[in-house]
Amino acid sequence: DRHELRRKRRRLGKELPGAGFRSSTPDSLERDVATFIAMHRGADGHKGHFMGPEIATFFERLVRSFEPSGSLRLDFLEVGDRAIASTFGFELGGTFYLYNSAYEPDAARLSPGLVLVSELVKDAIERGLRIFDFLRGPERYKYQLGAQSLPLNNVRVLNKVQ
Q: Rounded to 5 degrees, what are φ and ψ at 49?
């Protein structure tokens, strides 16, 4: 709920004074995607194992493919020059799509990922975006930030062979 989120934001600010938010620029993207990948690899369990060489290459190619359009968003919560949380998303047609996120495990007790995503939601509202899409998955943080589940449908199109 909002009270809990405000408490987490205050706690992070108190324990990590000087923490701030930063969005990648064209000049910082290459370095920033490497930071995102390294942070992801540092995670425990499935999340850390997910970021193998093939997936890392996929993210690097996404950056190269989407950067010219300006729709790629790579955002960070930082303390000084150290990133403690990062998100990888896209902004298209008045919608922000949160594709993936990572955070430093040693900062986990301060909920840096949740704080960063809440800042992105706030920023999207302030800039007049109509939708903030958390995409698939039932992760708890999404509902803490007000997400609502929508039905997803699979459609299969077959080409009738003569």
A: -75, -25
Beta bridge partners, 87, equal: 75, 101
Q: How far is the C-alpha of 28 from the C-alpha of 5, rounded, in Å?
A: 30
Residue 71 has a pLDDT of 86
**pLDDT tens per residue, range 140-158:** 676 666 666 676 777 778 8
Tokens 């690097």 sit on residue: 60
State the residue for tokens 């109509």.
Answer: 130
CA 110 to chain centre: 17
What tens digit of pLDDT does each residue of 40-95 get?
A: 888 777 777 788 889 899 999 988 888 767 789 999 999 988 999 999 999 999 99
Domains of the chain, first to last = 2-144 (3.40.630.30)
Residues whose CB falls within 8 Å of the CB of residue 105, separated by 6 or more in sequence, listed in order: 42, 43, 44
What separation in angstroms does the CA of 87 have from each of 21, 24, 152?
Answer: 11, 11, 23
